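Homework help board

Subject: predicted structure for assignment chain

Our instructor gave us this sequence and asked us to write out the predicted structure in token form, then describe one feature. I got the tokens but I'm not sure how to describe them. Can anyone check?
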Amino acid sequence: MPHYQQRDPHTLTTEPMAAVPAANAQTGFRIRWTRVTIVLIVALLLALGGIAFAAFQHLHHNIKTTQVQGLTNTSSTKGAMNVLIIGSDERDGSIDAGEAEGRRSDSILVAHINAAHDKVTGIQIPRDTMVLPPKGSTAYSTAPNVPVQINSLLADGDSQLIEAVSTLTGLGINHYVDVNFGGFISIVDALGGIDMNLPEALKDPDANLDLPAGQQTLNGTQALAMARERHAIGDGSDLARIGNQQTVMKAILDKAQSSSTLSNPIKLYSFLNQSSSSIMVDDGLKSSTQFLSFIRTFTQVPRDQISFEQLPVEPYPWDTNRVQLSDEGVARLAEIAKS
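My token output:
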């Protein structure tokens, strides 16, 4: 699959690009289940069993559906499957998440289930990844050959992001799951907060973050601010923030396990009932039967066969605060597509 190097801000060639020193970029890396990203934890918690079908139907009705274009073979759960899971930062005033308006994808992950349905590989796409704008996007109508940040495309609709991810990865997307900020907050609050021991204080007015050093319990709003923080850690890039997100996710899973939420059907139902209303899926999953079949696909996979990795990227030549798909990333995606 070709990727692109922009030689001039307004011209683009399809010639293979030379390697760029990855001073600010990280190559792909595998992370354990207990270090899953913000978005994936919501989708996979739905796959845990112990809920009666009637209760499941109620939870399913909590979940919103949306019509999107660009999906592949949404009616079948046989064979390999790719699910685009995003955390959207739509700022409708329900929470204080900054002054930016509109809707962007704050976290982007493609969960690839292999053909045998016995392994899941999650590919996390940095939101600062530069891609060519899809034909239906606003950016395409004004400058079709000038790359844009992939997370900005959600402002033009879910279909634009789906097309961009599919083109970038070379993977056909079968289903789409969107969890908004409010959903993440509900998850943490439903657990009674998460326990965190910070080696140093974290303070960033831009992220509404003000946490002292030491042992403490974070509520949903505080946990979201910590997961989104980028200015007070590392070099301030999206790649630096990923480690912070993993720390928050580990704390969520630790709390869920220690409180028996995941093994107790009553607690699990209450937990999902509070969080599922902030989840949106494609309309290929609008019926309870289709959705249950989709969820069962995840339950068939052994927990030790679920792994996650960051998409290998390299600095974008025209702005080193942005990244683009690397040769290593192209090779890794091709390997995943064959499974």
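Reply (TA_rk): Your tokens look well-formed. For the description, you could write something like this. The chain has ten helices and 18 strands. That's the kind of observation they're looking for.
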